[in-house]
């Protein structure tokens, strides 16, 4: 019986560690509830390896028993997957010309980011962009995210503004026009959004950025999962930002569920330890 108690304690200890991981995921969601374009995470659990322990030497009548005889002793439950949930967040008007809200799920703004001094393509739903000078003193500007990642079109080309701009206008066909401070306008190009047909392949790299994995290793081509289209009125709303898709009420309910389960397993360890202490004191 002491082996069973130790196994139950081990099962509870392992499960507590996995529950803590899920609590961390929920806490991460709550911490980013006000982050523009944030996509919430969700954990799913599965049973770990278990074994059936039978101690009855004489078979007993089953009666109305619905479970096998003996005790199923396992290693607890573990987080089998942490998935990104690409739901649409609420759209909030800002009336800022360089704020763009995506109005559909599965579409992202393509950007260029630097990872280990290497420029790579990434995607974000955070549509708050700013002007950044390409070369100091050159009076040439490009559109970047708040972290400095460069907004690009589908071909990976950045939007260059020749001189400072007072205002920006996104037309219904996706063309982006800048009104220059020195007068006149400049056609910056066509604002495009990336359509990810298999968003479950995206990997979060931090700072609200996502990247596709090595598609060749998955025997896929870029055209199988990635496409670009003009940012028309149906896909992008100028002067607004998409808020995170985190539901505070749902996250708090899940947090309470995880905490109660954590407390139950903690009590199980305490009770098993107390029972083993009583048995040892009787010897």
TrEMBL record:
It comes from the Bacteria. The lineage of its organism: Bacteria, Bacillati, Bacillota, Bacilli, Bacillales. SUPFAM superfamilies: Flagellar hook protein flgE. Pfam families: Flg_bb_rod, Flg_bbr_C. It comes from Salicibibacter halophilus. GO terms for cellular component: bacterial-type flagellum basal body. GO terms for biological process: bacterial-type flagellum-dependent swarming motility. This is Flagellar hook-basal body protein. Belongs to the flagella basal body rod proteins family. Residues 15-39 form the Flagellar basal body rod protein N-terminal domain. Residues 238-282 form the Flagellar basal-body/hook protein C-terminal domain. Its main location: other. It is found in: Bacterial flagellum basal body.
């Amino acid at each position: 019986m002491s082996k069973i108690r130790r196994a139950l304690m081990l099962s509870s200890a392992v499960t507590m560690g996995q529950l803590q991981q899920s609590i961390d995921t929920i806490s991460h969601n709550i911490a980013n509830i006000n982050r523009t374009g944030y996509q919430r995470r969700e954990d799913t659990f599965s049973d770990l390896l278990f074994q059936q322990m039978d101690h009855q030497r004489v078979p007993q009548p089953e009666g109305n028993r619905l479970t096998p005889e003996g005790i199923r002793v396992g290693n607890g439950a573990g987080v089998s997957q942490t998935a990104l949930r690409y739901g649409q967040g609420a759209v909030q008007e800002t009336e800022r010309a360089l704020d763009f809200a995506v109005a559909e799920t599965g579409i992202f703004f393509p950007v260029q980011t630097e990872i280990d001094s290497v420029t790579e393509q990434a995607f974000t739903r955070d549509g708050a962009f700013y002007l950044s000078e390409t070369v100091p003193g050159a009076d040439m500007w490009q559109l970047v995210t708040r972290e400095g990642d460069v907004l690009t079109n589908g071909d990976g080309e950045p939007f260059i503004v020749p001189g400072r701009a007072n205002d920006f206008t996104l037309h219904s066909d996706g063309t982006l026009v800048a009104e220059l401070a020195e007068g006149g306008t400049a056609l910056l190009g066509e604002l495009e959004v990336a359509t990810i047909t298999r968003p479950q392949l995206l990997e979060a790299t931090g700072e609200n950025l996502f990247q596709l994995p090595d598609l060749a290793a998955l025997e896929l081509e870029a055209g199988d999962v990635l496409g670009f289209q003009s940012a028309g009125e149906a896909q992008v709303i100028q002067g607004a930002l998409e808020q995170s898709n985190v539901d505070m009420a749902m996250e708090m309910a899940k947090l309470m569920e995880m905490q109660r389960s954590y407390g139950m397993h903690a009590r199980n360890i305490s009770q098993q330890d107390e029972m083993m202490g009583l048995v040892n004191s009787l010897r």
